[in-house]
Design brief:
Number of helices: 2
CATH topology: Diaminopimelate Epimerase, Chain A, domain 1
Number of domains: 1
Structural class: alpha+beta
Strand content: 25-35%
Largest sheet: 9 strands, mixed
CATH architecture: Roll
Distance between the termini: 42 Å
């Protein structure tokens, strides 16, 4: 069990995905038992905060800024990485694993490349990462530009609700409405 009276340190990154922001962490840095993750995630985000500001953490006081994404090697034969999404309550201590966040899903592929989970060459200009969302069991393909072996953040793509522009990330949600046991993604070349 994770000791809540002592400090817990782990490598993590802070990413924007669409109109959301969240903490990205590799699964290998977390306790093996996912039941121990909640207290860590609440500490990172700064929840619960009765004032709704999350000043003691990385959250931003609203649900779209109170998210944690866990990424690791895939347990699914047709994916490159597993991704577990956690929505952290702002004023309460809830940690919800029952859904997915499409905005933060767009950050999973770039994080997988930038953190070394997925290897690319410095000459590659396009990243393709096949993602298995463990919350929903769904498969998602992410495609994004690369520059010198890392995901590009600069670009001319704009989205409503976000100032400025950034690199375009395209997602393909495979069979989003149902589970098809015979479905297979084509392997990444």
């Amino acid at each position: 069990m994770c000791d809540t009276s002592s400090q817990y340190s782990l490598p993590a990154a802070y990413y924007r995905g669409g109109t959301s922001r969240g903490i990205m962490v590799q699964k290998r840095y977390l306790p093996a038992d996912p039941k121990e993750w909640d207290v860590i995630f609440r500490g990172i985000i700064g929840s619960p905060d009765e004032n709704g500001r999350q000043l003691d953490g990385m959250g931003g006081g609203i649900s779209s800024l109170s998210k944690v994404c866990v990424v690791g090697p895939s347990s699914h034969e047709n994916a490159d990485v597993d991704y577990t999404f956690a929505a952290i309550g702002v004023k309460d201590s809830s940690v919800d694993y029952s859904s997915n966040c499409g905005n933060m899903t767009s950050a999973v592929g770039p994080f997988a490349v930038d953190s070394g989970l997925i290897k690319v060459s410095k000459e590659d200009t396009l990243g393709v990462v096949r993602i298995h969302n463990t919350n929903t069991g769904k498969l998602i393909a992410a495609e994004f530009p690369l520059e010198k072996g890392v995901a590009m953040s600069r670009g001319s793509f704009a989205i409503d609700g976000v100032s400025g522009t950034a690199a375009k990330i395209q997602l393909a949600f495979m069979d989003p409405g149902w589970v098809n046991a015979s479905f297979r993604l084509d392997p990444v070349a």
